[in-house]
Amino acid sequence: MNKANIKGKWALVTGASRGIGRQVSLGLADYGCNVVLHSRNLANTSALAEELRAKGVEVRQVHAELSDPAQVEAMLSSLLSEGPAIDILYNNAAIQIGYHPDWVKTPMDDLRKSFEVNVTALVRICFALIPGMVERGWGRIVNVTSGVKDQPEMTGYAVSKAAVDKFVLDTAPHLKDKGVLMNLMDPGWLRTDLGGPNAPGSVESVVPGALVPVLIDDGTVAVLFHAQDWAGKEI
Ligand SMILES: NC(=O)c1ccc[n+]([C@@H]2O[C@H](COP(=O)([O-])OP(=O)(O)OC[C@H]3O[C@@H](n4cnc5c(N)ncnc54)[C@H](OP(=O)(O)O)[C@@H]3O)[C@@H](O)[C@H]2O)c1
Predict the structure, then answer these.
(1) What is the pLDDT of residue 56?
(2) For this structure, is 99 an active site residue?
(3) Is residue 235 part of a domain?
(4) What is the pLDDT of residues 122-142, one digit of tens each?
(5) Which of 31, 90, 99, 157 does the annotation list as catalytic?
(6) For ligand 1, what atom is nearest to the CA of residue 203?
(7) Closest ligand 1 atom number to CA of residue 16
(8) Across the strands, what pairs with 100?
(9) What is the mean pLDDT of residues 178-190?
(10) Does residue 103 sit within a domain?
């Protein structure tokens, strides 16, 4: 791992306003990484932006409802035309809609919405930012997945995360020799708005483990990192 590697680089963290994305943003800033904070509304990241600036890094804020392709394109085109160039992409934002005990009655709209936000937007953001990383010969992409299994009550969420896994497994090997390391991160079940109050882990426990796939410098790609493996440890 190379902690100096990310000092002065720029990261885009989607879903940075709260939960895991907020912790990842704070953790990146602690290593001197500049951060573009994404959420659906600039006001949602204003306080965090000030918190990060107080750590001495540069911060930008962007907004996009990820289920709306026009908003995703507007965010990406302003990033690509005005910068900053993104070296680290932390695709963290996701939705988990509903819990359906009678899962054969799951509304198909749940699947559509889950895929729009959790898969289509994630892939689009990757495809927009990968060429710049390849051109500069350096990049880190972390796509956040989930350990959810055996829960058909959350089919939309579960199958969308499986699609993210498949995307990374198929794509990452094609980037390895270009200096772009793409991997997966499972945060563990944590107390956030998405994870709910009954989750066993605190949201703070996601760091430092969630930063490991950003700090690696050994050519690792297409690997699933479990953030909880590093909970309470030094990296
Ligand atoms: N918490 C867990 O136990 C757990 C377990 C496994 C995996 N994960 C994964 O970890 C990641 C983060 O989860 P979390 O628990 O931190 O979630 P969270 O607390 O609900 O935060 C979600 C973040 O995503 C943004 N967001 C939500 N819907 C969006 C939309 N439609 N368009 C754009 N942005 C949207 C939110 O921004 P605004 O609302 O401010 O716009 C917020 O910053 C997700 O990929 C999740 O699947 C979480």
Answers:
(1) 98
(2) no
(3) no
(4) 999 999 999 999 999 999 999
(5) 157
(6) 1
(7) 43
(8) none
(9) 98
(10) yes
Q: Give the total number of structural domains in the chain.
A: 1
Give pTM, 2 decimals: 0.98
**SS3 for 189?**
coil
Residue 122 belongs to what domain range? Answer: 3-230
Which of 92, 160, 203, 205 most suits a substitution to test ligand 1, by most atoms within 8 Å of the C-beta? Answer: 92
DSSP string, 32-59: T-EEEEEESSGGGGHHHHHHHHTTT--E
Sheet of strand 34-39, all strands in order from the earlier edge strand to the far edge: 59-63, 34-39, 10-13, 88-91, 139-144, 180-186, 224-226
pLDDT digits (tens, 9 = 90+) for 28-80: 999 999 999 999 999 999 999 999 999 999 999 999 999 999 999 999 999 99
Q: Is residue 217 part of a domain?
A: yes
CATH number at residue 110: 3.40.50.720
**Mean pLDDT for the stretch of residues 1-9:** 89
Task: Return the structure tokens found at 220.
Answer: 């690792």
Is there a domain that residue 144 lies in? yes
